[in-house]
Amino acid sequence: MDLLSQVLSSLRIESTSISRWRLSAPWGVDVSRFEPGFCLRIISGSLCWQGEDSRPIWLHAGDTLLTLRGSKGQLRSELGTRCTAIHELPWQGDSYTGLGANRQPSSAQQLQWGGGGEACELLGLAFTFQYSSSVQLLSSLPEIIVLPQGQAPAAPFFTSAINHLMDDHQPGYQAVAGQLSELVVLSLLREVMLTTNSAASGWLKGLQDRHIHPALLAIHNTPQQPWTLTNLAQQAKLSRSAFAARFKRIVGMGPVEYLSRWRIQIACDHLRNSSDSVEQIAAQTGFGNDRTLRRVFKQQLGIPPRDYRRHYRAGS
């Protein structure tokens, strides 16, 4: 399986909220305190997005706005419009109390709001991911992603899927909404990753390099193998020195450090989702013995594996 398929296959939507926004100018919505990821598809009209430290971005019918981890910013009908916090708007539908494993809206939400001027209609999908090592890889993507009309083949499916669920109040809604949401988000993510340009960083930029890609694939496919700089360089068909320099320049860290960080992320998955001992996890992740895993784990995360597991399960 290719590396991109591995990453996408491991992502799971934990919770989702579907919405339709019918707005009329002037209007402004502050999403600075909205923590889940979200995507907005502009059905008609236009809007302005402005983050805390960025210039305004105008979006029009057919465009899609995507952020994977929330973003501090505002949506407006025009520059300078006063904004209202998203949680204070007159939403209709299941009361929104946040998203999470134990908080799943049982129906879609609808909003009709604004000053009565030019209309703008949006379809929204908010989501959280289940924790996995692959979620960490999404940090390579920009905070805000704009998919213009025509550059997101999955966007029309997004529109059909959300419209299909807007007035669904039957039993089973949550299961169907979760599956459709996961398909929409993964399809959009795939499109973003395949079309991301030189702004990409980390593993995503390495994915586009013909020498670094095979080394990354080897690390992700078999992290338990006793990889060294020498045999990773062989995967890349480069000398040790050329490979080490190229990997660090493109990915942002050395290959041995990347391998270690990836192994720790997999160890975190095991600690959170299995009852395997630290000794077993050390063998599964290539650390060789539990002493090495404990040392590297504490170096990277600041706490020992046992405390990490205890902290996670106490918060579940």
From TrEMBL:
Name the Gene Ontology molecular function terms of this record. Answer: DNA-binding transcription factor activity; sequence-specific DNA binding
Tell me if Glycoprotein is a UniProt keyword of this record.
Answer: no
Signal peptide segment: none
Q: Which residues form the HTH araC/xylS-type domain?
A: 213-311
Keyword Calcium attributed: no
Highest taxon of source: Bacteria
| PROSITE patterns (UniProt xref) | HTH_ARAC_FAMILY_1 (PS00041), HTH_ARAC_FAMILY_2 (PS01124)
Keywords of the record, alphabetical order, are: DNA-binding, Transcription, Transcription regulation
Protein name as it appears in the record: AraC family transcriptional regulator
Per the UniProt entry, what species is this protein from, by scientific name?
Halioxenophilus aromaticivorans
